[in-house]
Amino acid sequence: MKKLINREAGPVGRWALGLLPFVVLVVLYLVASDARLAVNPNDKLLPDMASFVDAIQRMAFEPSKRTGEYLLWQDTLASLGRLALGVVISAGIGLVVGIATGALPLFRAGISPLVTGLSLVPPLAVLPILFIVFGLGELAKVMLIIIGITPFLIRDLQQRAEEVPTEQIIKMQTLGANTWQIIARLIWPQVMPRLISAVRLSLGSAWLFLIAAEAIAATEGLGYRIFLVRRYLAMDVILPYVAWITFLAFAIDFALKRYSQWRYPWFHGTQ
Amino acid sequence: MAAIEIKNLWKEYGQDVVLERLNASVEEGEFVTVVGASGCGKTTFLKMMLGTESPTRGELLLDGKPIPDEPDETRGIVFQRYSVLPHLTAVENVMLAGELESSPWLGRVFGAKRRALREQAEEMLASVGLDQALRKYPHELSGGMQQRLALAQALIKKPRILLLDEPFGALDPGIRRDMHELVLDLWREQDLTVFMITHDLAEGFFLGTRMWVFDKERLDPQTPGSYGARITYDLPVGNSDKGTLQSISQSVDSTARVLSA
């Protein structure tokens, strides 16, 4: 038999091995939930499958008794809207500032120290300031996302722009390009797929800041709902919400990856 | 008047003298190969030709005027690697020079002008043997094809001087021979003035019209940086015998051993 280090799973084996931990987790949960419910049928900590189905039915497919809205969808829309707005604005700022500082040494000398300083400020510590300055409305929540991920995006894109080989920058000049043309035809297109990877990396933090902001001041949103029903120990709602948020995060990441592969074949071909 | 004139050129980095007392002049249409051990200032010389480094002393003149101190369209270049832009297809890489020229802001052209540029680019690519690969990205091309593309991209701009920085150093011997023929053909057809850096002596011996050997005449093994390299041989290519090759080769090898020690 081959040494363990040389053994690889076949295509079926890989799927089976990948699924195994999930199955184990679900089974463990069901066993534990069963045990607790046998002792106390009113236990709220580990609800059984039927209560999940019931909660999902209630949140997603029946209008709320109080407002007449479908809560899950309303929350999802509100949260995704904030997330998208925050991430798109951050990506825009990151792209422009990152390219400017990465490509132009004079800009880098002027702006980089400031960005490095700003990136060290813990965004959640600034949250009270945001609420004071921007009020409790949408703006404060979007601003938290922007403040949280923009410094990272700027620094990452600056680095990616600096990584464009000097040979190519010289090459562009020998083809007659001016500074602006070098940015527009060489650096910007080469940085775009890297912007997508940076955004994918920053989405985790973006969700964190979104949920934190919603937990503190919001009237709708996925984060708001979780923290609201926490008061009633409503695990039957919280767990499906967490699963749903995880799925949304996965779907966005997957979509960005596929888009990048389709739009920038040269980037993924050389990796 | 000579296209390139070098008058008592020195290049020093602090205490280290890289090149000293270089004097030469190159006529239009010459094909100069520059050989020498690594560390003997071949690349420094190329950088001064490009304008990314400037001479410490002396003059480097292009058509009687000092070479501009930044790269521009008078001097085309093909590097060993990274010469072509990975995010453009072959034909887009070759069209780029025309697009940059006629559209200072966008760097892109559309419509009839684009079609004209595309036709020119396709012709250029055909002349380097890439007519089958117009729509391929560089990463889909072999090393030799990438260098053909780099040549086409540089030549469509019709540079005054074409600089080649060990362009075939990373290629297999067979492909390298094909590339030699291609470069010679292009040079004859287009009346180019070429400087080619190589560390392959044999390459220097049969390509082009003139070979320069950069070597240190005076070499202090304890402080190799105290004397710079000079042009120790300036040979017309084609009528030099095997003995010369051997003696140059020995001298370059011994310098290389001292420098890399």
TrEMBL record, chain A:
Chain segments annotated as transmembrane: 12-32, 83-107, 114-133, 195-218, 238-256
Keyword Transmembrane helix: yes
Location of the protein in the cell: Cell membrane
Domain ABC transmembrane type-1, chain residue ranges per copy: 76-260
Keyword set, alphabetical order: Cell membrane, Membrane, Transmembrane, Transmembrane helix, Transport
Topology with respect to the bilayer: Multi-pass membrane protein
SUPFAM superfamilies cross-referenced by the UniProt entry: MetI-like
Major localisation: membrane
Database matches in InterPro entries: MetI-like, MetI-like_sf
Top-level division of the source organism's lineage: Bacteria
Matching Pfam families: BPD_transp_1
Family: Belongs to the binding-protein-dependent transport system permease family.
Descriptive protein name: ABC transporter permease subunit
Protein species of origin: Alloalcanivorax gelatiniphagus
From TrEMBL, chain B:
Molecular function GO terms recorded: ATP binding
Domain ABC transporter: 4-241
Keywords: ATP-binding, Nucleotide-binding, Transport
Keyword NAD annotated: no
Domain of life: Bacteria
CDD domains: ABC_NrtD_SsuB_transporters
SMART domains in UniProt: AAA
Nucleotide-binding found in the keyword field: yes
PROSITE patterns in the cross-refs: ABC_TRANSPORTER_1, ABC_TRANSPORTER_2
Alphabetized InterPro entries for the sequence: AAA+_ATPase, ABC_SmlMolc_Importer, ABC_transporter-like_ATP-bd, ABC_transporter-like_CS, P-loop_NTPase
Protein name (Swiss-Prot/TrEMBL): ABC transporter ATP-binding protein
Organism expressing this protein natively: Alloalcanivorax gelatiniphagus
